Structure formats: structure tokens, C-alpha cells
Amino acid sequence: MKDGTTTKGESPSRLIDARIKELGDWRGKTLARLRALIKEAEPEVVEEWKWRGVPVWYRDGMICTGETYKSVVKVTFAKGAALKDPSGLFNSSLDGNVRRAIDFHEDDEIDEAAFKALVRAAVALNKPSARKTKPA
Fold first, then answer.
1. Which option is the CATH number for 12-126: 3.90.1150.200, 3.90.70.10, 3.30.465.10, 3.10.105.10?
2. CA separation (Å) from 107 to 7, 17, 39, 64, 96?
3. How far is CA 16 from CA 31, 56, 92, 112, 127, in A?
4. Cα separation of 55 and 36, whole Å?
5. Rounded to an integer, what distance in angstroms lies between the CA atom of residue 124 and that of residue 73?
6. Which tens digit of pLDDT belongs to each residue from 7-66?
7. Cβ atoms < 10 Å from Cβ of 108
8. Quick one: which of 79, 81, 48, 77 has its CA closest to 64?
9. Does the global pTM surpass 0.70?
């Protein structure tokens, strides 16, 4: 599944499964756990596979991405700047006006309750009723 491998016709969920297996180390385990937490927080989440191999989770709009790098698993919340983060999970991409991210390193523990709360807040922000409408 490295760059150049065809993924045409494969389901995003299977591609994410394959990425997790391909990583075969702490990054795969971390991505798998974060994916499970996203699904627990929002059972109707839709998985997509974008930008040459990035898992993306949607519910009424993009929730977050799950990127893997050599030393981190990065979860970027599309509208993270608009989310309250009382547990202080956001530790990356803090200067932007829209996105916020969490970098997970090899020995980091995941605050599962706080992470699921962020996912739920992101989903709530995406709901049509939460979107601001322009005045007539």
C-alpha cells in the first residue's frame, strides 16, 4: 500500500485496516485505538481515504484526519479552533485559525474520555442546526 499502489475500488475501511497492519508498530496500534474511540464516540461515522493515504472521519462534515509519521500519530480536527478543549489535548497546529491537532508519541497515554468528548463536540459543530445561517 505504499505510494504508487492502486487502491481503486477498495473500501476506505479496508484501506485503513491495511494501513494499520502495514505500520505494524506502536503507530498502528495507536491509530487503531484512536479509530475505535472515534467509532465509539460517533457510531454513524463515515470513513474515507484521502490524499494518498490519510484516514478521514466524517459525520455531517469532516471530523478529523489520522496521519502517521515516523515519530507521531497526528489527529487533526478540521474545525478544532472552534472546539473547547478543557482537558488540553490539542498540542499541535495551535496557531491556525481553523484546525487543531493532537500529536501522539510512542509512550503517550490516550485520555480516552477527553478524546471522545472532542469527537462528539466536533460532530455537534458539524450538525446542520449548529451551522450559522446568513441573515436575510
1. 3.90.1150.200
2. 32, 22, 23, 22, 27
3. 9, 9, 23, 20, 25
4. 13
5. 24
6. 567 899 999 999 999 999 999 999 999 999 999 999 999 999 998 889 999 999 999 999
7. 14
8. 77
9. yes
